[in-house]
Request: fold
Amino acid sequence: MNSIPNVTLNNGVEMPIIGYGVYQVEPQEAERCVLDAISVGYRSIDTAQAYYNEEGVGLAISKCGIPRDQLFITTKVWINNAGKERAAKSIEESLRKLKTDYVDLLLIHQPFNDYYGSYHAMQDALHAGKARAIGVSNFYPDRFIDIARFADVVPAVNQIETHVFQQQKIARKHLARYGTQIESWGPLAEGRNGLFTNPVLTNIGAAHGRTAAQIALRFLMQSGVVIIPKSTRRERMEENLAILDFSLTPEEMSRIEALDGGKSLWFNHEDPETVEWFMEYCKEHK
Ligand code: NAD
Reply:
């Protein structure tokens, strides 16, 4: 199997360009899924406090037989744990659940509540060796520039919705100015907008003997985007990783670029209704 290339983050840390995400993986399934993912070749795992499956991920980390320094583990501080003290406590809790002394990447999950306090706790975690890199998620250009300018540590990564239908062309210009790596969540758009049967993707796939999913993932990877596709099925984990032994031509890349709608397929973090929805969700999931 081809090895997964790394990207170099702005603090020199190397991060695999393909990882495995565990959003919506049931807590009782997480250990099996992560063990499967590691056995098919993934080394980077993306979880979050709000996924309620850090314990399963931790069991897999401790049982997989791969040395810890060959794995790349990401978790995220949730809105309810915002603020310096609470975030610091939650980071300790995440490390305990993940059965590790450090995470490779620690992100603020959402740009809400006292995220500056959280970021200060994350900077402390970075300096204490409890995180090798820190960053943000769902920070759109306005909030991203604010934190990149005013925090002591420029975010190493911004994890945002990115797929063939929302290519984040504007956000990427701003991230590049600060040397911040874009990481895609929803690299397959969770199949929305007919991604798996999209004619452009299936036609290009036919030319390479690949599926639409593989073409969508290869497009992002070839554009320098870190991807963390999720599947609970081992054969799909393999399929999503089998994108290293072919490349898309410049003409194929531009046909896929033309699929960009420049808009979210979920919600807009700058929309007041979205913000209210998140606040209600947090109240219900205290
Ligand atoms: P995704 O785009 O990776 O799609 C996953 C879904 O697509 C699967 O549940 C499955 O139904 C389907 N699928 C996967 N591989 C397939 C294949 N080869 N063929 C056909 N169907 C396939 O969506 P996601 O899970 O939302 O995003 C990936 C990861 O990003 C998450 O697991 C999580 O780690 C992260 N994430 C982060 C945020 C955030 O706010 N930071 C939000 C969503 C997701």
The chain has a mean pLDDT of 97. The longest helix spans residues 84-98. The longest strand covers residues 72-77.
